[in-house]
Write a structure and sequence with these properties.
single chain; alpha+beta; 2 domains; 3-stranded antiparallel beta sheet; two-stranded antiparallel ribbon; 10 helices; 13% strand
């Protein structure tokens, strides 16, 4: 992995104005992970994708993360601070892309882990049930045993849930949950942490701040955007302080 330049980050931010969190995650990896082709990035298990995005986040904004969530019980704003290392879990075995699960109903299922291409496909679904059915259809490679239909969408509901749980156990990095407790009412809950969405929000805030700096320096010194972005952060800040009223 390499650290993108400010100019490259602004290009990624500009291209990600409309896409979903899944598409934005791929854009972020595209500017930092040259070791993967575009097809390989889209096929990475979500846990591996998120581990790479955590590494990119640490390179761009540091190891410490500050997050704010709204308490579902009293609506108070709850702040939490943690580090990227606190979110790093075991990644799926890259040498075993196909996994098996034997259900309590005697049905044996071969499946692969969900990836970014699956998330993009699920965006066309109208509800959670349709999304679950499509995900199973895409990720389940074969079924055998038991009785009745072997069509993936027709598997018993409890077997579908077992498959989903088996996927989550095999790729825990893809389903991060934080532990929050409200200091006002004492309510505890575990909100999901979507690193792709969170990193994009940070990139958006950084981009707006950077564009304000570019505007200030271009107005004061008549420099080109490319020249301003090529400055080191320390030198850019020094020029901003010099031209401040």
């Amino acid at each position: 992995m390499r650290t993108p330049t400010p100019a490259q980050l602004l290009q990624v931010w500009e291209r990600g104005g409309d896409p979903s969190a899944a598409a934005r995650g791929l854009l972020l990896l595209g500017c930092s992970c040259d070791e993967y082709s575009a097809e390989a990035r889209a096929a990475l298990p979500l846990g591996r994708r998120d581990a790479l995005l955590l590494e990119l986040r640490e390179r761009l904004f540091g190891a410490e993360i500050a997050a704010v969530a709204s308490c579902p019980a009293c609506a108070a704003a709850v702040e939490a601070t943690f580090r990227c290392d606190d979110l790093r879990l075991a990644e799926p075995d890259a040498a075993a892309p196909v996994l098996e699960h034997a259900s309590h109903g005697g049905i044996r299922v071969r499946f692969r882990l969900p990836d970014s291409s699956d998330l993009l496909a699920l965006e066309q679904c109208g509800d959670a049930q349709a999304a679950r059915g499509l995900l199973l259809e895409r990720c389940v490679l074969a079924t055998e045993g038991g009785t009745g239909s072997r069509d993936v969408r027709e598997l018993p509901y409890d077997v579908q849930m077992e498959i989903a749980q088996a996927m989550a156990r095999a790729d825990p990095q893809a389903d991060l949950q934080l532990a929050f407790r409200c200091p006002d009412c004492g309510h505890g809950w575990q909100p999901a942490f979507d690193v792709a969405r969170f990193l994009w929000q940070e990139l958006h805030a950084w981009a707006l701040h950077m564009l304000r700096d570019v505007d200030t320096l271009a107005y004061a010194y008549h420099w080109r955007e490319a020249d301003i972005l090529a400055l080191s952060p320390r030198r850019r800040q020094a020029y901003l302080e010099l031209c401040a009223p």
